[in-house]
Amino acid sequence: RALEADLRNALKRGEFALHYQPQVALDSGRLTGVEALLRWNQPTRGAVRPDAFIPLAEEIGLLPEIGAWVLRTACADALRWADVKVAVNVSVHQIHAGGFETLVARALAETGLPAERLEIEITEGVLLTHTDATVRTLEQIRALGVTVAMDDFGTGYSSLGYLQRFRFDKLKIDRSFVASLHDDPRAAAIVDAVLGITRALGVRANAEGVETPEQARMLAERGCDEAQGWLYGRPVPASAIDTLVAERL
Ligand code: G
Ligand code: G
Ligand code: MN
Ligand code: NA
């Protein structure tokens, strides 16, 4: 497959880039973190969507290598942004491949980024298998001081079981709930219920896909801690985050 051949060469040809999306505190509007999102600029294809190449990278066994590059690059970039956390997406194969905690520890040691400035975002589907090993791995990286967020919360199944088994520092409310917040009382009720869970567990809540001031207001009223979405900024290159941080008071 042509795409596969191109993907195998992408890392050594320097075709990957990380973009960063702002995460803000809903009460103050301050920038608290950025989520790293992988981009592949393939010379002849143009920008290839992560949904199109990440599953393929997993399938052909390239994700450990790409994931290590993402982690290291995100940690190195984050050094430039005082008091801003960097959140890195991690998928099933990275956690289950073994040695993930070593990879995280090495990225921190080699870049000098304080562990507290790194967050690992895990999609709940990741946790379906290998639960004991996964629990151990997550505990090991949390012991380093790295925080762990559950991504896309509310979209998979047995999410509540995961909350009992794994320790998370943050839940990210999936953007499908945020999208219908203003015109669907059921979505609002679900968001309230999730925020009740985060309060009861003493963990932070992040609402994804916030596009309008009304959504932001409704989330703030409900006590959601932070938000990200087009209202605050699209994913942008690291240099644009430099500017945001410089403008921050
Ligand atoms: O911005 P967007 O279209 O890039 O993201 C699409 C999906 O790709 C999201 O679900 C996101 O979690 C995933 N993704 C983005 N960057 C990475 C990455 O570095 N590693 C992994 N495993 N997934 C990523
Ligand atoms: O699955 P994950 O949450 O990691 O992926 C984030 C995805 O959401 C990326 O594709 C990113 O570009 C997209 N995204 C970020 N902010 C918004 C937003 O405000 N609205 C919509 N529709 N998508 C968003
Ligand atoms: Mn994410
Ligand atoms: Na998400």
TrEMBL record:
Signal peptide: none
Record domain EAL: where: 1-249
Protein name: EAL domain-containing protein
Species name: Roseomonas nitratireducens
